[in-house]
Amino acid sequence: MSTRVNPKLLQQCNEYGGVNVDACFNCGNCTAVCSMTTEEESFPRTLIRYAQVGMEDELLGSKELWLCYNCGECTETCPRQADPARFMMAARCYAITHYDISGISKLMCRSSVFSILFAIALLILFGGFMYTQTAEISTESLKLFEFIPYEFIHTAGLIAIVFLSVVGLIGIIRMIITVGRANNLSMKSFVSGEKMNWWGALWDAVAVQSLGQKRYRDDCVAEENVHGWYLSKWFVHAATMWGFLGLLAATILNWVFDVAGLKPTGTHVPIWYPVRLLGAIAGLLFIYGVTVLIIRRWRKTDAAHSNSRTSDWLFLVILWLAGVTGFIIEIALYLPDPPVWGYWMFLFHVAVSMELLLLLPFSKFAHSIYRIVALYIHALKPIPREEKELADPAGAAD
Ligand code: SF4
Ligand code: SF4
Q1: Do residue 209 and residue 88 come from a single domain?
Q2: Residue 391 above 60 pLDDT?
């Protein structure tokens, strides 16, 4: 296979925040300290080398790009202050813009002005549209789904999820093709379902590594002993992710219970109602994780949280606003006198949550999906012949 050379690759990666990676002289210290590196998957030095010599297909097709958790240890040991952790982040952003065909992520990652104006414009647009649907405010109790009709929110949410799924799926397919090609996996091998540990790899990628954060947890043992598990990087990262997924699950369950006629009626749904309980716990976890991440970036506590770009801040601020406003509404629902501000908080919360969903495939948040795909490809292994024979003696004899 011939290698396509892009002489501007390093410069292009730098546009996404690669800071000083041209100073790298390939000593390999960063790879030596990276606990995610194995004999087969060696990074970040190799990836920096790809960028330096313009090997674009190899860089974009590298699953190792997504195995990095931005812990920052490599940056702390680099003798040239080349900031390899930042380079890895920049290269991931570059890859996200490559998988996204709309060009929106490219604009959002490269231009601070565009990303801020785009986010504000979307918020005003959603908020304004929501406002046109509002009904009269009731002062007896907080009737949020009468203020903005439930059917309207439900339909808008469905449209957002369909949009998200289509754009996300296109990105995932493009990634699979790029990474699969670089790792000698064709689309045919993905659908044939014969020679690989398809289900085992899925379990490892989704349950063990993504939900269970195994690699990240193993890497943080020393840190846990110093700062406590609740402040370790893996837990803060996991709290944000578990919280987000929990809130998403609560929203979907709420709809399912409603359709099944199992949802309690009235404003004061008891806190032990499973969906509300799940929402409250997930909301707290989510706010905790995002708040710690914001404080770390603000204080530049370590190499991983220094050099923040507008896209880093924007992503965290939107997450935080969605989480905090949702939680304040939960509290407002239990106040003895229904506060009028609760209605406006609700309108803002729905608009910002909608914005979060729609920006997901174009923002840094997209890495959470692409990482699962990369982890899946990473875990895919051919099934050894003996195992195949045990599973299917007749087939193996053919
Ligand atoms: S990034 Fe720094 S530590 Fe890594 S190879 Fe380059 S100079 Fe060495
Ligand atoms: S940031 Fe951490 S995980 Fe990523 S390459 Fe550097 S040392 Fe490895």
Answers
A1: no
A2: no
